[in-house]
Write a structure and sequence with these properties.
It is a single chain. By secondary structure, this protein is of the alpha/beta class. It folds into two domains: 146 residues, 3-Layer(aba) Sandwich (Rossmann fold); 168 residues, 3-Layer(aba) Sandwich (Rossmann fold), CATH 3.40.50. It contains 14 helices and twelve strands. The protein has a seven-stranded mixed β-sheet with strand order 9-8-7-6-10-11-12. Strands 1-2-4-3-5 form a five-stranded mixed β-sheet. Helix 3 crosses helix 14, helix 12 crosses helix 13 and helix 13 crosses helix 14.
């Protein structure tokens, strides 16, 4: 969350707008506007120096009408309950829009993981599970990695849960390491999912991908594989990525007019997405201001960092050439910016459709855990492509039929599916 943007208020405003379009019953609105359950807990951790530090943890379960809650756990110094509520809400719509039999959940811990040793991270990860294990499970709520967490931490969490329940339970957590119950293709899933939807959008806009230029915000997992996918799958050119430099606490844009090499940049990036500026300069890259990605002359913008990045102020800087915005991040565009984007006629792939590749392959991981049989990477990515393509066209078709903005159409598809499940279960 950045500046004064309250992510949960934003999520509720987006929902309220579509509830009006759908003429949803006020009682149904009241159920869906708020999470069904929230857990707030304290996690005492013995640090390497022998002291005990207490961390604040959260787990929010927004709605489980369609199946077990699903959503990541973020370790972030600026984590708040409202951010977690918003992300849990968006997960409900995300799972529904891609037609997964899952609901929405999210977790968080207020911590900068970069300040912890490996041992401290492990004790915090296990401590999180010790506080919440009674309220999660393969048929209840399935966490996954998110900002500040990684597959190794998920492995520790799964192990801790298995110890507490007394049996090996790989399906309690997804995003685990391959070889420890994880799925092949999970690393690439979110970024490649973004690109599969971009490919379909470019077809709809009659644009040739190999002639298109993209500018990307972020260089974490999603942005890295979105950059790889845009260049290697679509044959297009990426002119820049941006990143947050942990050392000088500043955002930078790394650009190259004739196109970046995402694989090279990945080779000089640490696990938190910080690019080595000196090595980038030596290879002919320019280092610019952190917001420079937004005003690049590009056909496609892919915000793949944090919430609220395209807002009433920054939307004015988007280059006139831009025809498509693909939201790789959760909630990168505020409602005020949405209105400006709509007026300019820029095609937008909304976040909970665009970045649903991660949760889709997480679902595939759960299925593989249940079967105790694992697919090849090609099988995983092929199934992901099919799922994302079907979801994109379901939303596009409704958008064209009803004459509504793509974000509204995605919400309409998702909310209708959740309400239908609530009706079938007799909740309403």
């Amino acid at each position: 969350m950045t500046g004064t943007t309250n992510a949960f208020e934003m999520a509720q405003r987006q929902f309220d707008h579509v509830a009006e379009l759908l003429q949803l019953d006020p009682q149904v609105r009241e159920i869906l506007r708020w999470p069904m359950r929230e857990y707030h807990f304290r996690i005492p951790v013995r640090m390497d120096d022998g002291t005990i530090r207490v961390f604040q943890g959260f787990r929010v379960q927004h709605n489980d009408a369609r199946g077990p809650c699903k959503g990541g756990i973020r370790f972030h110094p600026a984590e708040t309950i409202d951010t977690v509520r918003a992300l849990a809400t968006w997960m409900t719509w995300k799972c529904a829009v891609v037609d997964l039999p899952l609901g929405g959940g999210k977790g968080g811990v207020i911590v900068d993981p970069a300040t912890l040793s490996e041992g401290e991270k492990e004790r915090l990860a296990r401590g999180y599970i010790q506080q919440i294990w009674r309220n999660i499970g393969p048929r209840q709520d399935v966490p996954a990695p998110d900002v500040g967490t990684n597959p190794q931490m998920m492995g520790w969490m799964m192990d801790e849960y298995s110890k507490l329940v007394g049996q090996y339970t790989p399906g309690v957590i997804t995003g685990k390491p391959v070889g420890g119950g994880g799925s092949l293709g999970r690393t690439e899933a979110t970024g490649f999912g973004v690109i599969y939807t971009v490919r379909e959008a470019l077809k709809h806009l009659n644009l040739e991908p190999s002639q298109c230029v993209a500018a990307i915000q972020g260089f974490g997992n999603v942005a890295q594989y979105a950059a790889v996918g845009f260049t290697e799958i679509l044959g297009g050119k990426v002119v820049c990525v941006s990143y947050w430099d942990r050392e000088d606490r500043t955002a930078y844009t790394v650009s190259k007019a004739d196109g970046i090499d995402p694989r090279f940049l990945m080779s000089i990036t640490d696990q938190y997405g910080t690019i080595d500026k000196n090595k980038a300069r030596a290879a002919g890259y320019s280092i610019e201001d952190g917001n420079a990605w937004l005003s690049k002359e590009a056909d496609v913008l892919i915000p793949a960092a944090l919430e609220g990045q395209i807002n009433a102020d920054t939307v004015q800087h988007i280059h006139e050439r831009v025809k498509l915005i693909a939201e790789g991040a959760n909630g990168p565009t505020t409602p005020e910016a949405d209105e400006a984007i709509r007026q300019r006629g820029i095609f937008l792939i909304p976040d909970f459709l665009c970045n649903a590749g991660g949760v889709t392959v997480s679902y595939f991981e759960s299925v593989q855990n249940d079967m105790n049989f694992y697919w090849t990477k090609e099988e995983v990515l092929q199934r992901l492509d099919t799922k994302m393509t079907q979801a994109f066209h379901a939303v596009l078709d409704l958008s064209l039929k009803e004459g509504v903005f793509m974000r509204d159409a995605a919400y309409m598809v998702a909310i209708n599916r959740v309400v239908k499940a609530m009706e079938l279960r007799g909740w309403i």
